[in-house]
Amino acid sequence: MAMKRNGKAPVSSDSDEKVVFFNDVSLGPHESQLRFRLIHFWEARNPVKKTVIGLEMLLIDEQGTVVQGFIPPGRIKKFLPDMKRGSVYKLINFYGSKNKPVYRVSDHVATVSFTWNSELIPLHDIPIHFAEDRFRFHSHEDFEANCDLRGDLYDVLGHMKLVNGQTLTERPTLDELEIAATRHVLVHVQSHDGHVMKLYLWDQAATEFCQKFKTFENTPTVILVTTVNPKRLGGTLALSSMSSTRVFMDNDVQPTIEYSTWYVLMLGCNPDTANQVIAEVVTKRETLSIADIFSYIKQDSAKDAFFECTATIDDVVHGSAWYYIACSGCHSKATKGPTSMVCTNTKCEKVNTTGVAEYRAKISVYDNSEQAVFVLLGDAGRSLTGKHASELLSSYFEANGDKGAEDEVPVPEALISIIGQTHRFCVKVTDHNFSGNTRAITVTKVLSQDIPPHTEESVGNNNAAASKVTMLTRDEVSDSSKSRGDCANEESKRGYDTADPEKAKRPRCEN
């Protein structure tokens, strides 16, 4: 039997062709033949110039060994027309180059590089079995240990808890225009060991997620994402997709099928527990000062994040609406239509809705490091005042019978009375903060004060407010933002400037 150039004996096939397995591939040139299934391929780009530097591949042979493949940019046009994911090929002549030390997708020491004399030939009806895929899973502890090391890219498997902040109790709404603008989808994934991790799917991976998600008749639960990069964002572990990332759900591949079976057995007779989300576990917030939050926002690597911050309220910002009119179903902005209020969210099923007042109040806060403007939305406002926004609105109209829906409603005493209070806030920073459009920070929850219970009186006031709100004019509601989330961002663009430090009612703090 002839010897290979690198000194190892090839494996002879029935046709006496020189065939080697991936385990026999060493560094240097090879005139032998490889047989493999092309699992996946993707463009490799220069991270600075964004130019294509080659085509990378994931290959598996008949022994189940996986290697990374590479085609230089000048040879892509030659091979790409014949390349199809999942197909089986033989490759004659190649070079075993050293596997790169960063962002590796296989354990093999060598990368199969296509050379000037390489021949790629599709194999049809071949009797040899090739595995469809091969995955490399990491646990939460493994990802934690490899944070920010830029080493091997491993795969994550688990069940989804949140998709862009929405639970799976009802099918999440995926706004493709918004996702295209933000370029990512944020999924909270709980692994087999119980840990919840943030998973950022970027660009093509986000598109693939949306397309695949929408193909399922029932809401998919299990997710497998390949080659993710573990990073620490805002002090919390986050997994970020790469160019090589693929997305699988529910019954797509064997690992998701097996996980789905385990998941159903784990739920037992109580399937409702599948969508219970413990906010403290999911967000895993880090406590920062206001100055630290602003420093994080300025970082180039900053992404959407939640933080806890203890601050004192020194004023309620005047000069802008402290509430907006929301759809009673999805809490997006509602506008006045010909006969009723109309929800502006095209994904909402309640096209004709009842307008409900929701908080969108800006407050000036400070701690020992810095001053900021926080935006209170929904339950965050109620937890401070003990009253729904609709209740306060109803009380104002009842006390001022000569006022109409077109009249400006001043900041209520219930909001003014929170000045001087110190609370622990859960806040969220988003793309609007990173782009420099606003310094105002959205409050998602107030953690240090109990919410007063409902009373019979408050229920009646809510009903009265709802009927009054439906008569608001188009001009008044147009000042509200597009959605519960967007309203904070749009209004807060000028919120920081309107907070006059000279008028602040805060006491001097000693350092």
Automatic annotation (TrEMBL):
Keywords noted in UniProt: DNA-binding, Metal-binding, Zinc, Zinc-finger
Annotated Replication factor A C-terminal domain residues: 306-447
Stretch list, region Disordered: 452-511
Keyword Mitochondrion on entry: no
Biased composition (Basic and acidic residues): 473-511
InterPro entries (UniProt xref): Euk_RPA1_DBD_C (IPR047192), NA-bd_OB-fold (IPR012340), Rep_factor-A_C (IPR013955)
Pfam families: Rep_fac-A_C
Superkingdom per UniProt: Eukaryota
Record flagged with keyword rRNA-binding: no
Record-stated family: Belongs to the replication factor A protein 1 family.
Protein name: Replication factor A C-terminal domain-containing protein
Gene: A05g501280.1_BraROA
